[in-house]
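Troubleshooting: if your tokenizer reports a length mismatch, compare your output against this known-good record of 99 residues.
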Amino acid sequence: MATRAPSKEITLDRLAEMLVFAAKLVDRKGPIAQPILDRCEREYLAAKQRQEARSGSQLERVQKLLGAANIQGVSKAPLVDQVECASEGAFSKAGTLRY
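Known-good structure output:
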């Protein structure tokens, strides 16, 4: 029995090519090929999400999240400026968190 070569990670560009190919296949062959397109789309989105998670800092990720949340009325005010270091209690008189 022949052994398989070790699998390599498929690049995001290659997944994008496969996604386009699968879309063309569905256009030509009809709904019978739809599961192939659906699978390619899931694989592409998962790989893109993994790549975004690996790149950039956590601060950038949270800022992007807050940028989207700001549309819904959530303030983007930096919490670091509101936090004070003190040993007297959990909250200051102004209501900001102390640690």
